[in-house]
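=== RUN LOG ===
request id: a7f3
mode: sequence -> structure
chains: 1
length: 273
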Amino acid sequence: MQGLPKFIPTATKTAYLNTLLRVGFDTLDFGSFVSPKAIPQLRDTAEVLAGLDLSATQTQLLAIVANRRGAETAVQHPEISYLGFPLSVSETFQRRNTNQSTPEALADVAAMHELCERSGKTLVAYLSMGFGNPYGDAWSPEIVTDFTRQLAALGVRVVALSDTVGASTAATIAPLFSALIPAFPAIEFGAHLHTTPTTWREKVAAAYEAGCRRFDGAIGGIGGCPMAADELTGNMATENLLAYLAEKEVATGLNMAAFTLAQQQADEVFPAH
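=== RESULT ===
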């Protein structure tokens, strides 16, 4: 929702999220505690949270934060289990995204992890530009491994490799997960992949076959990064992930009737996507 110029009413957001809660996903990225000036679309996250029905779901809530101040606000809400922070492998993108240098961002990660530990929550570190960047900043598997090593030293337990601009290929995805998963057994690795309609399968397969079991998706592939070179590059479509898992005969335990309803609502919530 964050990139849409027209404000989605709070009641509409809440109704859509409540349907997603009934599907039975492990985690729902429901909002963001960031400056309303930076992301006006999500200025009502606290109000949305108050309207969520958590009485009949095991789904855990994740909120995105961009700095310590946002984390301090988020941890005050007992309903939230995860705080997500975008730590970029690209210094240029870190400054554009959170107005910080890489050392400043790592210092924030350390502080937010400690805050989460004290509050009974878990920090999810998204390694943005994890598969390359369009700025010419240095990237290599060794650089991603070094970032992961620093996160592991801080005690971070969930790291999502993020294909921010759709730069990944099966040839870059598979070796990274194959190397990182055994090297850092205390970390749960996730895949936040951006893709075109024709490249999603090879990306999912590369991550899954390399051992990744935590995947981010968005119904219809809605959203993505505005800096992506290809306008068809969006988030990984949840229905594609489910189709792949069905082919692998992996039982998800999801309520597919609720998922179908959520797909119908998505067409109303995002009419111009």
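=== NOTES ===
The first strand starts at residue 27 and ends at 33.
Strands lie at 27-33, 60-65, 80-88, 122-128, 158-162, 188-192, 194-195, 214-215, 234-235.
=== END ===
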